[in-house]
Every structure is written in structure tokens, then in C-alpha cells.
Amino acid sequence: MSYVNYKGLVIKEINTGEADKIITVLTAEEGKISIAAKNARRAKSSLGAGSQLFAYSDYMLFKGKELYNMSSCQVIEPNYEIRNDIEKLIYCSHILELILDNVQEGEPSEEILQLLLNTLYVISKTNRPLNLVTRVFELRLMSLLGYEPHVISCVNCGKAQDENMYFDFDSSGLICKKCLNPRSRSFLLLPGTVKALKYIMCISPQKLFNFSLSQESIKELGEISKRYIKEHIGKEYRKLDYLKQLKLDG
Ligand SMILES: [Zn+2]
Question: 64 pLDDT exceeds 60?
């Protein structure tokens, strides 16, 4: 039997049989993988903690016919704060849905795993605004998936400025007032939003969440991100609608 040793984060869990689970884990080496965790739902199971949604663990696995089987696991970060806070849980469920839909099986995903770990760390351990953290995650993920918008300068003339810039969905990037086609699908951005877009696309992963932003700019980022995801991925993500039902900020 051949064993592999992977670190990964649980992005989906399904109960099977009497006390078993099948989990989907995001790994650097193979992207999404499916793992059967036998008896993981029994109270004394040593596989229980590492089979919980959002847990990041070091797994010892052996390959079965269709799935990996979990032999042992060592939890590195349980991220239990997320499961204990309804607002954090809703944002993180949305984040996991984006990962589940857009990361393939068998495709190395080191940068996406790092982005996910950083994002969940900020959400679970800090009080940074959840809507801003989620927008940063979404836009950076789009970039890692190969849909990076052009935000350094005007896509047409190359002029770099923060004032009087529009986000143009037809050209997937910023466009200045002079180059703007009035019939294109675009909208004027606040200078703070332009600065934030540049920061999100260009900064190193370690500093990704180290900035603050006005509520107006966070709202603009949200409008861009939602529409940009819909255009490029072709799906409207609705989990954050629950926030409105709970009268929490979307
Ligand atoms: Zn221009």
C-alpha cells in the first residue's frame, strides 16, 4: 500500500454510513482531493477533529480505488471560531463554495491554498471587516484563476491615475474618462477604490489584508467583484444573501 503525506484544509464534508465521512480537502500538491474517513463521527475517533469543515491538518493517506483513505491526521489549525459565529460562517461558506467550484482535482494549487489559509486566519482570529476581507479574497482568487483585471493603468492609453477612473466590464479593467466609451458597461470609481484594486492585485500575499477602506469603497469593490465573478465564472453566488435575511451587512 502506498502512503502519501499531505497538508490540507477541509472544504466540504459529507456524512456516510453509520459513522463515516467523506471530506473534500484542498491541498497544494493535488488541488481538491476526496478522502474517506472511517468512523470519523464516533466520539473517540482520532480522525474526528481533522474531518471537520475549515480544519487545516497534516494527513497520512493511502490511496484506495477511487478515494484516498485517511490513516491518521494531526490538526494544525481547527479554525473553530468560524463555526461558532453565524456571520463568519456565512462568509466562509461562500468562500469555500468559490474554491469548490473553481479548483480542479489533480491540479497543484499552492497559491490558492495559501490565499485560503490567510483569508480564514484573518476571519477567524481578527476583527477586520468581513465584507472587505471577502472582497479581497474574491478578487485575488480571480487573479490566481487566470482572470486578473487590468488595474495598474487605463487599459487603452496606459495613463496611471486614481481620479476619474472607471471600471469597464467590456475590457476587464480600468479606463480613464478620455478613453471611456459611453456605451460600454462601466462605472466611475472612487479614488480609494482604484488604490485598493491596485493593492489587492499587486501586493505580496503576506501583506494582502493590511489596509483599511471606506464603506463606500468596500461597496464598490463588492459590486465589481460580484459582477466580475458572474461574467468570468458564469455563476451567481448567493450564500451571502443570508446576511440580508439576518440583517447583517452584505
Ligand atoms: Zn485612457
Answer: yes
